[in-house]
Every structure is written in structure tokens, then in C-alpha cells.
Amino acid sequence: MIRLFRAALLLLTLAGWPLPTLSQDIAPIQQVLQDNRDLIEASSRRTIQPAIDAIRDSDLDAAPLVLEKWEAREMWQRKADGHFFYAEEVDRDTLDVFDFATAESIGQFPDDDFDQLKPNSGIRALIASALVRFQLGDPDPARRMAALTALARNGNESHLPILRDAIEDETDPAIRAQKERLERLLTISFGATDEVRVAAMDHFRGDLGVDVRAALNPILATRTMVVAGDSPPGDINVARELRPGSDALSEEAAYALLVSNGMAPARLTPQDQRNALSANLADGAVGGVPVGDLSTTEARDRAYEGLVLAGLAPPAATGEEVEAALEAHTFYDQYAEPSATVTDGAREVLRSIERKVGLHQFLDLTLDALSLASIYFLAAIGLAITFGVMGVINMAHGEFIMMGAYTGYVVQQIVPDYTVSIIIAIPCAFAVTFAAGVAMERLVIRWLYHRPLETLLATFGISIALQQIAKNIFGTQARPLTSPGWLDGALVFNDVVGISYIRIAIFVLALIFLGFILFLMKKTRLGLETRAVTQNRNMAASMGINPDRVNMLTFGLGSGIAGIAGVAIGLYAKVTSELGQDYIVASFMTVVVGGVGNIWGTLLGATMIGFLQKGIEWFNPSNTLAAQTYMIIFIIIFIQFRPRGIIALKGRAAGD
To answer: What one-character-per-residue DSSP string does 570-597 give?
Structure first.
């Protein structure tokens, strides 16, 4: 059936009948396409621009549609008369063909009657540039913003007048500001005069946008050049002169530049020289030099020169010739930008930006340090209570953090709403780890008071056992503890400073717990008894306080707080059986540095360690293990000078 249809269509064409859906009067957009038919058919990136410009500048309503379909490779040319249409494939052999002028279907035809236009990536980029003119004035703000985004990536000189015209017609203040910013950025690279380009740069003094640095850095890009004589040419923009052998340019790199420019022969290495001399040994001599005389460098050089003159070896430079060649030439970095006015302006603006970037990097580092300090505070506050009151070195404290994180994971499996599950997980984690802490104190710790070594070994064994139990229950793979959707993303102040919402939530949680612990210790009977036992256990017992009960509740409280810390830490860290091991050392350091048994000391200790770790990582960002090592060394030194910590414990127990 399709073959009969094609045959009938061909007979109609040969008989001179007008083709279906082709009007006798050619539409204006079709006329533009026919006027540029040869260029479109040739489809060469070097010659296609006039055809694209003709469509873009035709001011016809159909022009954007033509460019969009052409770029999308949906434009077809009818073989019978060369007219252009856009089409959609109905099936493997049939096209639904549309007229550009009316955007209406003219029918379905066999695809053999049409040729598909398949512009390459270069031509498609040119078409996309032409489309910007229409997209920047699109009624839809989202499409205008999308056009600006595309223009920021691939803008060129031809877009400047289009962008300036679009600014005048823009009614949305935010989009207008974005257009003005992009116009200045393009002016930096493609402005008509040096003064115009420098004026555009001045608008960005102290601007922290990455796009500004992306526009300015290429202007200051350099390449190393060499010229014979004592100085660079006077008509070029020189960034700096270079001395071979300096940090900026080694002698090897300098001479390699001479060789690559054909200004000196390749360097003669001792091995190459020996190979050439050995290969040309004849009648007890090489290059006219007796073999017995080749014991010196000068004789070997003369022999090699003789081989070069005889055509038996390639020309090569000796050490003295290399030095002479380096002395006879001047090396310098040359700006790719020919105008010194423009490079001076770019350098000055970049300096102002770098100063501001440095300040904001410090602010960003401060936020990171505060965030890390809040994590360490949450992890250590429970240990500060148990260690300060009971003097017990609990090596299983990290496993209580791990248990809290796994409790949060289990709750999320039951309650799929992440916000509700986190709210439920916090008291559940406290209850689970509180019970585990009380059980541990009743079964193990109470029998080992005043025996620190045995306590350390026992809790270390419990730590290993708890890790293995977690592996048996949950496996070795990391389990996800998903944060609520409202904690996704980050609070971004600019292109330099930002902090994730999860970190902010943990920081707020740390402040809440600080207030809770202070209230507990200052305003409740348990806090009063805890402080009494901390300062003088015997005196507290003589006043009717049960130290054994206080120890039990205190250990349970510290363990419960560690469980809540586990839920918070699990929101951004991998929940595995080894989770607690990542924080146990930092927790002990926080407690010892801050002052054993003191809440404010724990806060100051966490802050000090957080800032110290982030500061060391800033100086050595590629090696976090080395940063942790340096931090531990610093803390050891600190303890030598202040063994009781930042805030020393007061009372008779302080002297124990």
C-alpha cells in the first residue's frame, strides 16, 4: 500500500500537479530558507553562519521554530522541490510533516521523500547562539533564566548587542540584574575598547562570584616564551622575566623550550654520548680521537663533534653549549591578553577579590570548626559526666553512640516519615542506651571502682563485644539514617561561605543539650547530688547521699546522652558497627583538655579541638590522618602545661 502511495505521488509530481499542502504562494519563512538553500544543504560550519543570521534577523514569527527544530535535528527537506519542513516519525517508514509558517500538520508521507538535516555539534552551537535572541525575550521567566544560564556557559561577542537590547525590555528585577551582570562579564572578554573592559571589571571589585574569577583568570593566563638577546620585545605584554634555574623555571625546562623552538640542539646526555662513541669505534679511534685519550670529558666532547662533522651522529649540545645558549636568550612569561591596561585592571580587581575571599574562607572555616566542635561536644558530654563523677575510663562509650545511631535506623524502618521518626528516635535512643549503661554499671563497673586498669580492660572488652553483636544483627554494610527533607541542602551565604542544614541542626541540638545539662546539674536534686559526689565522695556520703545510686544514675545518664549523640551523628555519618571508634579518642581528648567533670570545660575543650583540627586540615588538606596526628601531639603538649584542663575541678577531689 505504501509503495502504491509513493508511486501515485511521484506520478503527480512528474505530471506537473501541485504537491499536496504546498501553496502556490511561498510563505515568507520558506522564502528565507530557499534563499539560503545552498548554504543549508552544504552544512559546513565555516559557511553556515549567513544562513543562520538570515533566519534570526528575518523578524518572522516562525524564525525561532525553524532554529529550534534545526538544532534538534527535526528539520527535513523535501526531495521533490527542496522545501523545508519539520517532522515527527510516525513509524519506521512514515513521517508526520509540519509546515513552519503555520506549525500545522500537512499530512503523513514516506520518509524516503525527505532528507533529514543533521547539523554537527559546531553548527548546533551556532544555532543555539542565534536562539538566544528569542529566548531572552520569551514571556516565560523560566525560559529567560535558562537562556541566561546557557549564555553564561557559551557566550561570545555576537551576544553582547542582543543582551543589551534584552536588558532594556526586561521587567523582572531579578532577571534584569542577572542580565546586567552577564552583560558586564561578557564585556570583560569582548568589550570594544580597553577602557570599556576595565570599567566592566571595576563593577566586580570584591565580588565573590565564581563567574567573575572565571572571566578574569583567562585574561591573566600566561605562556612561557624565549627570545634571543637581553630583553623581551617591547611591543608585547610581558608578565615577568624568568631566570633559568629559579623556582619558576628550571634549567631543564628552559633548555627544552629552546629545543622545541628550534633555537638550540637537543642536550647531549652522557649515555647518548657513550652509545654514539661505542658504535663508531674504528682503528683504535673515535671521531679522530684515540681511544686512550677518551678518559676526559673534553676529549669525549671532541670525539663526538668529530662524529657530527662526519655525519655519523646527530648534532647535540654539550654542557658548556647548554650554558652558553641559556645565557644568550631571555625567558619571560607573556600574557595571552595583548593589552597591558586590561591585564593591570584584571590583576587589581582579582587582588580585591582574593582579599575578600580570604576573609570569607576564614568565616567558612569558623563555621566548619563550630560545627565539628558541636559534634565533639555531643559525643563527649556523656563521657564528661561519667568520667568526671566516677573516674571510670569507659572505652565502650563510643559503642553507646553506635547503639543510638542503630536505634534511629530501626525506628526509621518502622516509621517511614523521616521527621516523625527522628523525633521518636531521640527518646528511644536515650532509653536504650540509658538501660544499657545502667546494666553495664551494675554488672561490671561497680565491682571495679578505684581499679582504673581493670576498668579500662573490661570496658575495652565490652566495646569489642558490642561491635560484634552489632555486626551479627545489622551486618557489616553501612545502614542509612536518612535526615528529613527539610534538612537537605545548605544555607549558602555566597560562593565561599555555606553550611549544611544538618550541621546547623546538630549545632542547635548541642546548645539545647548544654542548656539541659546545666539545668540538670544546677536545678535538680540529681544534679546537686552529682556535684557533691564529684567534689567529695566521702563528705557526700556522710550527708546522706547514696554514692552508689548516684553512680548508677550518672552512668546511665551519660550513656543515654551518648545515644542521642549517635542519632545526630548518624544523620551525616555512615552507621556501622565501627561508628563509635571514630569519636572515642576525640571524646576523651575533649574531656581531658576541657577539665574533667566540668560542663563548661567540656564545651571549651570541644571548641578548642574543633578549631585546632580544622585549622590543621586547612594547612594540610590532603592528609587528614596527619592533621589528627598533629592535633594529638599538640594536646599532649598542652596537657603537660595544664594537666587539669582549661577549667580545673574545684574541691577536695581536685587533689585526688
So the answer is: HTTS-BSTTTTHHHHHHHHHHHHHH-TT
